[in-house]
Here is the input.
Amino acid sequence: VEIILTLAGVSDMLQTEWIKIICMAVQLFHAEEGGAETSVRMQWNTPNTYGYIAPDSLKAASVALASRDEARIIKEFILIPWQDLYEQKTTGNELILAVSLKFVTVTPYAMIYEKISGTQDSVFAQSALEFERAFFSIIGFDSCQKLIRDEQGFAIPNGLQVIRLREYSHYIDLETALPGSKTIQPAIPEGMPRGKMIRLSLIPDFGPVRRQWLFQPYQQADSCIARTEESAVSLVSSLFEESVRQSSEYNRLALNDECRFQIGNNVSAAGCEKKTVIKYWSRVVRQLLMANEDDDAYADIRRVFPDYEPKRAPDTVTDFMPGINEDIENMPVPELQNLKELLKRFSDYEKRARKNPGKWVDGNMILGANEKEYRPSREELLLNECGMRIKRIVESVDSAELVNYVAENRIKTKKIKFRRFRFRHTDALGSGRFFYVNEIREEKVRILKKK
Here is the structure.
């Protein structure tokens, strides 16, 4: 899910609240998915902590994955609210500290940086990777980094020559040439799209590149989202905060359901269609919690059955007949070196299936069955699985390699035929989950293609 928040006319308070929500979403991810050897730390600092002068002094948030005792910082991201920012300089006119930050992206509420540490701990490498993936998903990184335009080599006011201009969803990356030792008064160049941060890089003939962030006021919009944003943010923030306090009992789906329910009951439609407002803010919550769209569809069910979890994985032969699992696990994997053994087993399953075929039975329609249901035998299901593995081998390997293998192993089988079964399930709440055959199809597989 990729959400681009409008944040039209957003206040400093709302900006800070959004950043807080993001950090709490990361904490909640760790509560459910993180290991016992790590923790997530959140704290607020002034931008000059990271090497920037900020006239508006809006505090930045740090959200970091740390060792359980917080003695080691494994991965850290900095979220700085939209505002003018200038790199600090020492008395020797050298830039300080900001060089330890790696720019990531700009969201509708913050400039995002990663703080680079001097050493990387291989022990926590996987934890760091999962933490980064979760953070990028929560902030909607792909949407934020969507390139809108890319132009090079033109002049703008302020005596600047543009080397390159790249416009993204929420910011403009502007690289300009600054001849000699000339200095300029920071100002937003004319003709820039409004409502986006400008990352201005001043590149002199010699010396370090000077970077600054120039804040452009948010575009004012009288939309349903803009009019409901303050109440939605306040509600989501309080629910997230309560979940963080009770992180040991945190359940992602339960929080997703509660947010959706509270939004529907307490966020005014502000003269708009109620369904539109609920749908939008529910999508935002799903992004923050990394939930699936299906999770909303089952919200009402979980209010009656709190432990209900929808099945999202494909329905398989072992779902239909769990007792067959050991036989399936012991079956050779579909690789060319196993073709001879699979064909031998196929012949055996075929003989046994003829002796013990499946049968049609009356279906229990109350439990989601059809009027008539086919119940394949254990042997038919093993024949189906073995046949499908042979089919995957034949269709995936190089034909010349297959010809050589058949010749070397003196395989005489020319083709195989079997019934292929596909499955479905129905959740009968209060009774359980029931699996049925959804499709029966005759499969024919020729081992070697005709010349």
